[in-house]
């Protein structure tokens, strides 16, 4: 699954254990990792995320201490997402620990990636690419749960980046999704935001299909700017509450 490929993608250099804790915590409390879902074993996690076994063990110990995962011993054992993890979302919600500057910077970085991807995609997309992207947006349109909407949105954004035919852009989008997806999953609880995003995607696809480069870039920026606006709005609401 694309979602899990992003969640367990390689970790950067700084504060690796803390990065793993934040990424997996966000994925758990937003439902991208579901209750009772088994995590990969320590060896696989270390390999997937590009860190040492000790770093993985430290991160898992922190997640256990936060009651987000529990460990079962024995042949069928392993680390599993706790059933009550969703109930902790109000106290562990990522918006409470992130600054508006962080969200703004994240949005600007994402806007740069997707707008330039749209610029190149408007020149390079084939009819098959357009059809595939329309299918992804159709899945997003029909998705009912925040988790399903987030996964569909990830596919749409990754498809746009892939259609740029730039391996670097596609890889940067994949890396950025580890921060982005767990946050927009909270936004997709709103049916109104979901509908607005679907309409923006639909307009963007029509423009890409017409190979209108400048307008494709503008619409891609509008899409990410809309997400960023709602992310910051949610952050401000948590400051009030």
TrEMBL record:
Coiled coil: none annotated. InterPro entries: GntR_C (IPR011711), TF_FadR/GntR_C (IPR008920), Tscrpt_reg_HTH_GntR (IPR000524), WH-like_DNA-bd_sf (IPR036388), WH_DNA-bd_sf (IPR036390). Residues 14-84 form the HTH gntR-type domain. CDD domains: WHTH_GntR (cd07377). Pfam families: FCD (PF07729), GntR (PF00392). Keywords: DNA-binding, Transcription, Transcription regulation. GO terms for molecular function: DNA binding; DNA-binding transcription factor activity. PANTHER family: GNTR FAMILY REGULATORY PROTEIN (PTHR43537:SF44), TRANSCRIPTIONAL REGULATOR, GNTR FAMILY (PTHR43537). This is GntR family lactate-responsive regulator. The lineage of its organism: Bacteria, Pseudomonadati, Pseudomonadota, Gammaproteobacteria, Enterobacterales.
